[in-house]
Amino acid sequence: MSQLFYGSINYDALLNAIKTGKVKTFKSASGVRLVNINVWVNDQPDKFDNDASIQVQFKDEFRSEKADYIGNLRKHVKNENTAIDAEIVTGEDDDLPF
Q1: How confident is the model at residue 97, as a pLDDT?
Q2: How far is CA 74 from CA 1, 14, 45, 53, in A?
Q3: What's residue 19's pLDDT?
Q4: DSSP character for 62?
Q5: pLDDT in tens, 40-77
Q6: Ramachandran region of residue 31, left (φ > 0), alpha (ψ -120 to 50) or beta?
Q7: Distance in angstroms (rounded) separating the CA atoms of residues 90 and 37
Q8: The pTM is what?
Q9: Where are the domains of the chain?
Q10: Source organism's superkingdom (predicted)?
Q11: Beta strand spans in the chain (E)
Q12: Residue of 72, 93, 57 lying closest to 5 (CA atoms)
């Protein structure tokens, strides 16, 4: 079953990481510039209720260094509507044509 995660990326942290020259980036054949990332999904939410973290991938020569975390994600939990008992009133004064 698929799961939906939502969150945000710290744009400034991402730009700063890219400027170091250590982050693994590439340009696609169509000219789109991309940044490689790692997503770490936790077994349990952290103290801020985040279920996952986003980290930039470093180039091979910098792998021994600690990569920057640039964002967090939370698992979407669908709100289940609960049925309530309600009395349905019907009568001839409902102004309906049928």
Answers
A1: 66
A2: 17, 19, 8, 9
A3: 96
A4: G
A5: 999 999 999 999 999 999 999 999 999 999 999 999 98
A6: left
A7: 59
A8: 0.72
A9: 5-75
A10: Bacteria
A11: 5-9, 25-27, 33-35, 37-41, 52-56, 69-75
A12: 72
